[in-house]
Amino acid sequence: TQLLEQSPQFLSIQEGENLTVYCNSSSVFSSLQWYRQEPGEGPVLLVTVVTGGEVKKLKRLTFQFGDARKDSSLHITAAQPGDTGLYLCAGALRGSQGNLIFGKGTKLSVKP
Amino acid sequence: GAGVSQSPRYKVTKRGQDVALRCDPISGHVSLYWYRQALGQGPEFLTYFNYEAQQDKSGLPNDRFSAERPEGSISTLTIQRTEQRDSAMYRCASSLGTSGARAYEQYFGPGTRLTVT
Do A102 and B31 touch (CB under 8 A)? Predict the structure, then answer.
């Protein structure tokens, strides 16, 4: 059973479109992170959310942590080809010693 | 160094041989993690350390896999009697490991691509 479910698994859109990626769980997380990974590279941290209901913005990216800290979303406005990559959410379970649970990722392709 | 480094970047070995993969974390980072990652998928947890202590090895597939971090810095993941199914990208990550949300923010190395023939 996958503890963190990401959807959609694949997303192919045109430049300029908006999109939302979801990360859902039945477990409560003390914090949740989003990473972006390009082919041949390791995942790179984008943001950490900690408080239920928290919203963080990073240029055209908006991250939200659910009120119950069980889910999160990533919204990209006016996507660009440079946004192409694998987007991963990862959560630290409440009471864990430091291990992160990763979702399987959403593979985003933005066509010019 | 500025980031997490791993060596070798590529390793081709014959079935039955032992391999050792090295990870050098960011200086001062308490926690070190090993993952295996299939193409286009999220990292699959193998094991992690706080300082030199192995905290969780529940993700290691079987007893052919082991890891150590004897001085709380560099870590080695060893696979004995390699099999073709061990072929994968092996990634290492490190984090501050202090209290608070930033403790969990992981910085990944470039990975070692292991191919078992």
Answer: no
Angle of CA points B81, B83, B85, to nearest 5°: 150
Question: In angstroms, rounded to a whole number, what is the distance separating the alpha carbons of residues B92 and B96?
Answer: 14
pLDDT in tens, chain A (112 residues): 568 999 999 999 999 999 999 999 999 998 899 999 998 889 999 999 999 999 999 999 999 999 999 999 999 999 999 999 999 999 988 777 667 889 999 999 999 9
Q: A99, A101, A106: best mutation site toward chain B, by most B Cβ within 10 Å?
A: A99
Q: Quote the CA–CA distance of A51 and A40 in Å, as a whole number.
A: 33
How far CA B106 is from CA of A35, B29, B34, B62, B92, in Å, comes to 9, 10, 11, 25, 9
CA distance B99 to B31: 12
Which of chain A's residues have a Cβ under 8 Å away from the Cβ of B95? 98
Compute CA distances A37 → A30, A105, B4, B50, B104, whole Å: 23, 9, 15, 25, 18
